[in-house]
Design a protein that fits this description.
Layout lengths: L10 E5 L4 E3 L1 E4 L2 E4 L2 E7 L4 E6 L7 E7 L7 E4 L20 E2 L1 E5 L4 E6 L6 E7 L2 E7 L13 E10 L7 H12 L11 E4 L1 H4 L5 H13 L9 E4 L25 H10 L3 E6 L18 E3 L2 E3 L7 H17 L3 E4 L2 H6 L29 H16 L3 E4 L4 H4 L5 E3 L9 H15 L8 E3 L3 E3 L5 H12 L5 E5 L6 H14 L7 E2 L10 E4 L2 E4 L15
Parallel strand pairs: 15-16, 15-25, 16-17, 17-20, 20-21, 21-22, 22-23, 24-25
Antiparallel strand pairs: 1-2, 1-7, 3-4, 4-5, 5-6, 6-14, 7-13, 8-10, 9-12, 10-11, 11-14, 12-13, 18-19, 26-27, 27-28
Length: 539
């Protein structure tokens, strides 16, 4: 019998930059040491964690519960931001970092243990043969937060015991609904075009308008029209980095307001991409984060979202987009610009237990990184008005309730099928329980190009279109023949209406599920090339 985790932990440790402090249990719900106090408030369905430290800068807090799991138990965690094809059910793996929540399948039932969305700390779970640890990162950048006299409500723990007769997927859905009590959801199914995965930024207003016409022509639903999203490449200073200023388009996008109007005139709704925390325009030095980021494009100096003036700059950009007539805004790169890491192994360290490099802090040392990110997301939400927001490379658990759509996985591809297979199918299978619970989950585009076999893209198109989640296609006109036009029209017919979320049926033992329940019917896909499965080398 699995223990109930809505109880006080067996141990509470606090970490500063110089020492580890084992807090003493003084009375019910109260652990202290020196001037530090951790107060745990046990309620009917949750355990709230409060932290007070008027003198000592605090880096982390760790709560430990002693317990044992049945030998056949399997565990599933989430990702910090987008996922990168790595999500899976596994047995006990003590070093595994499971951000935000974990699901526990004991062979009969599926239980959930996690923290509520929009917590004021960055949380992850670890399991081993003797118990469970919850780590709360309360740093400001890479240094301890200086709370002063205030008390931080760091996180709220939620535990859900699985019910008899429900599938692991149904249990995961119900648990995600418990974690987020106030999601912000689109008022209508979202679908349409985004030409990134065949143009990769080499685009123009003329090309965008042509694709808007194509998407509109293939969308038969008169009541819910498609979007046409202008991705990276429209801004005036794309080189040497893909940042702002966001005040005008470049020579290939001479009039952004006129383009929005033209997209609407052909029967689509205009959407726009931007990167809020990077600009080439002059800003005071104190507006910058004080740390450089080495991207594949070169050295970048992101803005500091703890500065009120930076948030005001972002609000002004958002208002400009609305004034131009854009009805959907896709904001990107904020997790990279803040942490300087991706969620996978690249030329930099991945996001893991250690979220960022040493040696930097936000200008406001009194707030945690999570609190500063929450304020950034709130500024984006408030300034977006009635426009739909898509968060991309954002902290998934913190964006819930602010953004209608969330890009849940790393980029798919219009260049190679294997990347789409690994990133798209895995992320949709393991994060679709969050659909309509946190936000509408966006598994990224179907890249219809001559470089990707149509028979594979057709299956990917079918899955996303009938999954009940948003569908975006990057349709290279050279790849759109009669068969593709018919398939797109059918896909848009499904995507334009409300459908139940797709359910992966073999996800307990397959990281790339083949069997799915789509709109009540079981469908089996063949995701691998006929010559055999390709081997990814960047694990």
């Amino acid at each position: 019998m699995l223990t109930d985790f809505l109880r006080y932990p067996d141990r509470v440790n606090l970490y500063s930059s110089r020492e580890v402090i084992c807090l003493s249990h003084q009375s019910e719900g109260k652990w202290t040491a020196k001037s530090v106090k951790c107060l745990l408030k046990l309620e009917e369905n949750s355990l709230k964690i409060f932290l007070t430290s008027p003198k000592l800068p605090v880096s982390r807090l760790c709560l430990r519960w002693q317990t044992e799991f049945p030998e056949q138990s399997r565990f599933l965690g989430d990702s910090w931001e987008r996922s990168y094809g790595e999500l899976e059910w596994r047995g006990l793996f003590p070093e595994r970092v499971m951000p935000w929540y974990m699901l526990i399948y004991d062979g009969k039932s599926t239980h959930g243990l996690g923290v509520k969305t929009r917590s004021r700390s960055l949380c992850f779970w670890q399991t081993d043969a003797e118990g469970v640890s919850l780590w709360l990162d309360v740093r400001c950048g890479s240094v301890g937060v200086q709370l002063g006299t205030r008390t931080l409500e760091a996180a709220t723990v939620v535990f859900r015991r699985g019910e008899e007769g429900e599938t692991p997927f149904q249990a995961a859905q119900a648990f995600c609904q418990q974690l987020c009590t106030s999601p912000r959801l689109p008022s209508h199914p979202v679908y349409g075009g985004n030409n990134w995965y065949h143009a990769y930024g080499k685009s123009s207003a003329t090309q965008i308008l042509d694709e808007a016409k194509l998407v509109s022509d293939l969308s038969p639903n008169p009541d819910n029209r498609p979007y046409m999203v202008i991705d990276d490449g429209w801004q005036i200073c794309r080189e040497p980095s893909n940042g702002g200023p966001w005040c005008m388009g470049n020579a290939k996008f001479p009039d952004m307001a006129a383009l929005a109007s033209q997209i609407q005139a052909v029967g689509a709704k205009p959407g726009l991409w931007f990167r809020p925390l990077l600009t080439a325009e002059y800003v005071p030095q104190e507006w910058k984060l004080g740390v450089q980021r080495q991207s594949h494009l070169g050295i970048e100096y992101p803005l500091d979202p703890s500065q009120p003036e930076v948030l005001e700059l972002i609000r002004n950009d958002m208002q400009r987009f609305l004034d131009w007539g854009y009805q959907l805004i896709k904001h990107d790169f904020t997790a990279w610009d803040i942490f300087g890491r991706w969620g996978r192994q690249t030329w930099v360290k991945p996001l893991g237990a250690e979220l960022t490099d040493d040696g930097w802090a936000f200008s406001d040392r009194s707030r945690t990184t999570a609190e500063i990110i929450l304020e950034l997301y709130q500024a984006l939400r408030e300034s977006a008005g009635d426009a739909i927001l898509i968060g991309c490379n954002t902290v998934n658990h913190l964006g819930a309730g602010f953004f209608e759509l969330q890009r849940i996985g790393d980029d798919t591809s219009g260049l190679e099928w294997e990347r789409t297979r690994r990133m798209g199918i895995n992320t949709l299978a393991f994060r679709i329980p969050q659909h309509q619970a946190f936000h509408a989950v966006d598994a990224d585009c179907v890249g219809l190009t001559p470089l990707v076999p149509w028979e594979k893209n057709q299956e990917w198109l079918t899955l996303v279109a009938q999954s009940g989640t948003p569908l975006f296609v990057s349709a290279n006109p050279a790849s759109i023949k009669v068969e593709q036009r018919q398939a797109l029209e059918r896909a848009f017919t499904f995507a334009a209406k409300e459908l139940p979320p797709a359910e992966p049926l073999d996800w307990l033992y397959n990281t790339c599920p083949r069997r799915w329940k789509l709109n009540g019917e079981e469908v089996t896909f063949n995701w691998f090339d006929t010559t055999g499965a390709w081997v990814f080398t960047d694990l």
